[in-house]
Amino acid sequence: MNRHYSPSQLGMWTRCPRQWQYRYLEGLMLPPVGAMALGSAVHRASARHFNGILACRPGLAHAAFCDAAAEAYDAAAAEVDWTGDGHDREGEDRGALKDTCVTIAGRWRAERCDHLDTPIAVEARLETVFGDRPWSLVTILDLVTSPSGADTTTVTVRDLKTKRKAPAGAIRGTPSIDESVRDQLLLYAEAWCATAATAPDRRPQLPALACEYAWPRGTVSVPLAPSRAAIDLVIEDLDAMHAQISAGLFPRRRQGWHCAEKTCGYWSRCMAAIVTDR
Ligand code: SF4
Question: Domain range for residue 241?
Fold first, then answer.
């Protein structure tokens, strides 16, 4: 059967194949947590801003950008399962998260949005096939920029990541991209190349990549230079994931922060039914 995989599916599979089984095979959707509402709200405001520029309109001014993020947060937060006193399953406070969302949106708008190259694609959904493999890759690229809008050969694929705290190394001036985000960006590079190819055997040069971190106290753009070898390794991971899925193998990966009552939404269905004295 042909399957569509995304970088976030690979991320979930890498954390725990059993989570993937619950979510993508059994279709057990979990209500989003507040942090997801925050992230999607900043992305929506950013997409509105850059889509305006793409359509030759002015982008959103700072206040309008923050308002757009607040409005998008309210809409996204309506999907979150809050307790009576306004906390999500991770214990985050609904009102405090909204303030953080607006602060992060303001940072991103003030510190980065006017300093990027010309946008040439915003929230672009791309589907990439790999020869006769029985799966395809579906990606959504936050933002693709070029020094001159007309020049699509020298591009940077940018991924916006909202965080509550500075990313690793940022305070010391040596920010880094964590492994799962790195794989995600490499797949974006591959997807962009495949889309921009004029013929299957004539792929353009790999785009530059940048992880755009925004948190309440700052922003930083962390570049990543993709290589064909690094991309091929991630594609190999997708092949291995597909082989295990086809064989019906979904082992529990219990080691790590993700396997706990507070962090795995499938805990009650999975580990709680087995373990009583962890
Ligand atoms: S409870 Fe642990 S093993 Fe089970 S799905 Fe969640 S992370 Fe995986």
Answer: 117-247
Q: Does one domain contain both 111 and 124?
A: no
Same domain, 147 and 206: yes
Our count of domains for the chain comes to: 2
Question: Structure pTM?
Answer: 0.91
Q: What are phi and psi of 122, to 5 degrees?
A: -130, 130
Q: Does 139 sit in the ligand 1 pocket, CB within 6 Å?
A: no
Question: 13 lies in a domain?
Answer: no
Cα 251 to middle of ligand 1, angstroms: 9
Alpha-carbon gap, residue 190 to 196, rounded angstroms: 10
- Give the position, in ligand 1's atom list, of the atom nearest the Cα of 16: 8
* 143 DSSP 8-state letter: E
Structure token digits, residue 130:
């790999």
Residue-wise pLDDT tens digits, 7-17: 999 999 999 99
C-beta of residue 108 within 8 angstroms of C-beta of residue 160: yes
